[in-house]
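Sample 1 of the test manifest.
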Amino acid sequence: MKTKKIFLSEKEMPTQWYNIQADMPGEMLPPLHPATKQPLGPDDLAPLFPMELIKQEVSKERYIDIPEEVQDIYKIWRPSPLVRAYNFEKLLDAPVKIYYKNESVSPAGSHKPNTAVPQAYYNYKEGVKKLTTETGAGQWGSALSFAAEYFGIELQVFMVKVSFLQKPYRQFMMNTWGAKVVPSPSTLTESGRKILDEDPDSPGSLGIAISEAVEMAAKDENTKYSLGSVLNHVLMHQTIIGEEALRQFEKTDDYPDIVIGCFGGGSNFAGISFPFLRKKITENKNTRVIAVEPESCPKLTRGKFQYDFGDTVGLTPLLAMYTLGHQFVPPKIHAGGLRYHGAGPIISELLKDKLIEASAVHQLESFDAGVKFARSEGIIPAPETTHAIAQVVREAKKAKEEGVQKTIVFNFSGHGLVDLAAYDQYLSGKLHDYSISQEEIEKSINSSKVL
Amino acid sequence: MKTKKIFLSEKEMPTQWYNIQADMPGEMLPPLHPATKQPLGPDDLAPLFPMELIKQEVSKERYIDIPEEVQDIYKIWRPSPLVRAYNFEKLLDAPVKIYYKNESVSPAGSHKPNTAVPQAYYNYKEGVKKLTTETGAGQWGSALSFAAEYFGIELQVFMVKVSFLQKPYRQFMMNTWGAKVVPSPSTLTESGRKILDEDPDSPGSLGIAISEAVEMAAKDENTKYSLGSVLNHVLMHQTIIGEEALRQFEKTDDYPDIVIGCFGGGSNFAGISFPFLRKKITENKNTRVIAVEPESCPKLTRGKFQYDFGDTVGLTPLLAMYTLGHQFVPPKIHAGGLRYHGAGPIISELLKDKLIEASAVHQLESFDAGVKFARSEGIIPAPETTHAIAQVVREAKKAKEEGVQKTIVFNFSGHGLVDLAAYDQYLSGKLHDYSISQEEIEKSINSSKVL
């Protein structure tokens, strides 16, 4: 009988993260201080992050040891299974082998705890008593709630108000793990109060929530700030996904021709793809690596490479990256985790150097793929994850047209059990696509120009 | 470093279910026809079930082969991990080793697909085009939706109206897998219309929903009915859980002194415990096996052993079992899966023969244990599952008082991600316990007396 899941034992779990900065052929531009516009030093970041994470952010070491305490918590759900999607293959009726790395098996239901746990750990080791963070749809906030609770760190989450109201289950999940959650804009910070003064009905945005979380951390020396994507150290923590997948492929006769991940700030995409990119760079493996973004937030396919802020208000360092402009407000698609204006420095450099490709899909195409996947493979994907699946469908069609055999792996970044209202809306015909004109994009990029 | 999860490879997955009817020392009383009150023959059940399941219901064979097609689908999530709960042990600070069998890893999030898949399969093999079923909180309905969709069988789910309104996510999940769901009582059946005529605002009950599902199946020869617990064949399909656990314990130096499962109709409890009971009966293993029910629906601890109907209206066969009376309406605790009046024939006989023990816990004690577990082990348990965890806490305290070392295994029957509103109510102090007087129980039992 066919083997469906390829497991690693806990003893086979990788004990190091992979730092792609060691192998990148292109040189990244340095982050700049938001006020002076000069290259940033470690001390500039110290009020916000523990020193170990600042070191990781700029490290050129190829591998960084995963602390034993972190490995121990990873083992609650790791190693995650690599699964052959036989039934989905059958449905697509194309000459493709499809594998997915199932990151939905974590307590929070996504890949986010892979970095939430080490971030909480390093803060704990450096005596931090309280963390702040922002969250959109809530995947990141719930992962950090679980991790902070584990190390006895207090957590204040600023959740974008519109999501806070739409997705009460995420809030309950964070509360169950002991975190405090407020809708943002809130009255807890100056940034929040100022915005509420101007517009008491503000629905909030990720940019506003970041400003609130950063402000609260900066004002108290026992409080630090934690981010769930974009930054180099965050992406590196996620590489445990691809390192496991490499070892799992060694147990099969296959090696992927195509690696696919959905793309918001880059954390799940980096997690699955960076170890395969190492093989591509250092061993000349001929692997296509594809980041899939929503058509309604197309920074990789239609954005511009320039210095930009990570938040709307302009409190974060300036990063050299593909961006739609830090004031860009993406339409309200259900894949909340993909609604971010910038691509981060590493991913942007990789795209510029043509080591990765980018693709964009509309919401309806992605839900169509998600429902097909749920009905054939059983598992209901998160709205974000359905974007990766839509690209798998496209690649399968292409392989069929071209009559070539392909092996595809994609990152099943999370399940959709707390996003079922989105499926209900899709199935009852209430969802639609959002098209953005080139004019709108250029206007946003130009008006957000900093340098 | 300590190993947390004990995995089996797919090749090590058991290929047979265990039928405890082969080893029970006590003789069960036969089911009786609801009208004639005479022992039931296979033909009486043929309008509702496919012949293979009727055979399994009365079989005395010790082991029954799991069809290859069913094994193939099991592999979407099986073998499930056996996990050592080190962090929970540390929190309880008692001389206990605690293991849990994690059944929450299935697509529907619980153990229910273990029987949904073979039931859908046997119906498919016998040419059945449509199935009906009832569901309370929705765990069973969603598991059968997934399984029916897989085999191309149409499914009509009657969902207790109060749950339908309270738990929209479960309904969306069933829709995503292609099932039709109506709130019960509905206008689709005579039973439903009659109840709506009398009370247009009826909140529904599991009993009413069973009547509707049975009526619809009985009236159409291409339609059969499917039940998620109580019956012998259903309990048997779940024994894959305990069979895996036995093999997983062989990979450790441990063997459980105590086996614990929460108890509603018996399916998850039977699943984890029957294989250990075989060892107890045939190899004199000294294992305590404990079924944990809610104090608000205490059929095992305070019910009476007598013939009773499986539904409120009285359409099902009469079963000899511990019961609170088929007209008993349990208080609205959040553990909807445990709100059933009867214990089924096998479990009842095992309790009478003192092969198993029963225990009852209140809602607040169970949520307290559930939150402790979520905060130490990461995974948020279903409200049903928290009852098993509360009993683990009790046994740990007892072991500490007595100063003896114990090894405990419990069935983590499902996660609570679709029940997070219940946690919100618990954490904000809005839940309370429900005490039922002996007088109420006796009144219900006496008024439901059939023979």
